[in-house]
Amino acid sequence: MTTVRAVAFDVDGVLTDGAVWWGAVGEEWKRFCFRDIMGVSLARKAGLKLALISGEASPLVDRFAVQTGITNVYKGCKDKAAALREFAAACGISLDEVAFMGDDVNDVPAMEISGYPVSPGDGHPAARAIAAFVTEAPGGHGAVRELLDRLLAEV
Predict the structure, then answer these.
(1) Gap between the Cα atoms of 23 and 84, Å rounded
(2) Is the alpha carbon torsion for 40, 79, 90, 118 positive or negative?
(3) Are the CB atoms for 78 and 8 separated by under 8 Å?
(4) Distance (Å, whole) CA 60 – CA 82
(5) Does the pLDDT of residue 144 top 90, yes or no?
(6) Is the Cα dihedral 118, 123, 124, 125 positive or negative?
(7) Euclidean distance between CA atoms 107 and 78, whole angstroms
């Protein structure tokens, strides 16, 4: 494996368990895992560049980014591979040095161009099939932390 210098994450199904709660007047809630949040903090302190690449345009993506200090945010993406290319270019690194963690068929194009494609343990079979690493943990339950711990152990 090429040295990973940057990591991009899908949000729903990776940083969350993929569930969404809607309130009667339009509120939306998503559940994030504190182990994953700590992993993001440790990765940032270790110098990894981080990004969120989400097909959704939810303000909760922005809130997570602000809370965790992630400044590279791509929301409402219909072409996650293009967003991943843009992220790598913004970091001044090759795609071979970027890990992308996705969980479903819409993540596969970004996973295919990533130097280190990753899927949570409960990812769609298409995502798991092309992943270089599949976490034991499911999305939203420590899968991100598992990946980041693995990467930080190699630094």
Answers:
(1) 33
(2) positive
(3) no
(4) 22
(5) yes
(6) positive
(7) 10
* The three-state (H, E, C) secondary structure of 81-99, written as one string: HHHHHHHHHHHCCCHHHEE
Q: Domain of 55: which CATH number? A: 3.40.50.1000
Q: What distances in angstroms separate CA 18 from CA 96, 122, 129, one per listed residue?
A: 28, 10, 19
In tens, the pLDDT along 9-35 reads 999 999 999 998 888 988 888 899 999
Pairing of strands 49-53, 116-119: unpaired
Residue 1 domain-assigned (yes or no): no
Long-range contacts of 120-126 (CB under 8 A, 24+ apart): 120/13, 120/14, 123/13
Tally of domains within the chain: 1
To which residue do tokens 């790598």 refer? 88
Element (H, E) at 4: none
State if pTM tops 0.85.
yes
Say how many Å lie between the first and final Cα of the chain, rounded: 13
